[in-house]
Amino acid sequence: MNRFDRSIIRLIVLVVFAGTTTAQMWAQNAAGRIIGNVTDPAEAAIAGAMVTVMNEATRASEHVVTDETGHYQVLLLPIGTYTVTIEKDGFEKQVFDSQTLQINQSLRVNARLSIGQRTEVIEIHEQASNVETANSTVGETIIGPAIQQAPLNGRDVLNLALLQPGVTETNPDNTSAGNFSIAGGRTDSVTYLLDGGMNNDLLDNGVVFDPNPDTIAEFRILENNYSAEYGRNAGGIISVVTKSGTNQFHGSVFDFLRNDALDANTFFNNENIEPNTGLSAPLPRNILKRNQYGATLGGPITIPHAVRGEDRFFFFVGYQGQRLSQLETNGSAPVFTTAEVNNGDFSGDPGVVAFCRAIRSSSRILPRRQQELSTRLHLIPWP
After folding, report:
1. How far apart are CA 154 and CA 284, in angstroms?
2. Distance between CA atoms of 290 and 324, rounded to whole angstroms?
3. Over the chain, what is the mean pLDDT?
4. For the domain with range 138-242, which CATH number is right: 1.20.272.10, 1.20.1050.10, 2.170.130.10, 1.10.10.10?
5. Could you tell me the pTM of the whole model?
6. Sequence-separated (6 or more) residues with CB below 8 Å from residue 155
């Protein structure tokens, strides 16, 4: 490969990276931030402390310095797991690992540095759960394997919204778009975000693209009281963030099966009545054969002798296909109103009529009971 070819490859990678970076700059709603305060043993603020925030999956780092009040914040961080390192001359270095950052979260990591040498390191692996004090948004988040392992019918990630309090399915009589009402809002007033970008259909305000669960890193629903960055609609926010590549290649292969051979028959199919004879005529099970299959793959973008992607360039792709064979049969079973039952009017069911006639003419019933039944059955308007 000559120098010109290498230059072309690097230019292509640079354009792709620039486009991705620009998209992330506009897609700020899918990010979070890490904030905190740094103090000494007397709880006095430490100014000028170096704070390094590193993404454990991609090794990407951000550096900030505490202000005169000892406060720091690192903005626009992609969701993921981070290691926070805080150091200052004359104090021991502290390292907080496995800090999980979620969508729209203000993750607080406070540090109290002890007097000592910077070569002395205090590693903090576990700490009390952080209470959200910087963001008043009411919402809930589902992350990681819980999304892939959830028993979602049809593998529709948006159905995770129904697991959250205050979210209900749309009224069948509602003619508006959308499937959910969040905190009593309109179903067509929900804002859908995908990786921070708008995912609403401009015609009916429904969702446009619904990725399969194996490509989703985090699902978050904001019910109300969200910050000003989330404008547009007042009916709640559903934010979905897809997975990204890391320094390690990772992926999955899946095939989800639904087959009528594994299903029980429906009640009305079992109780089906033949209209002409009034006899029981059960219907077979509804036909349903569905396979949802696909794969995902992510990792560093590496081109031998040209680009080394570790710690810099990453990719993630996913595919899902579906094969579906379905046939529904509708059984019929008579249903009587309360008035019909009270009046003894069962003429709508030929089977009941035949049974009543057989009872009335039966010789096995005591005369007194037969006379009582005959009186009651005379109420039936025979066809």
Report:
1. 23
2. 4
3. 82
4. 2.170.130.10
5. 0.71
6. 212, 213, 256, 292, 320
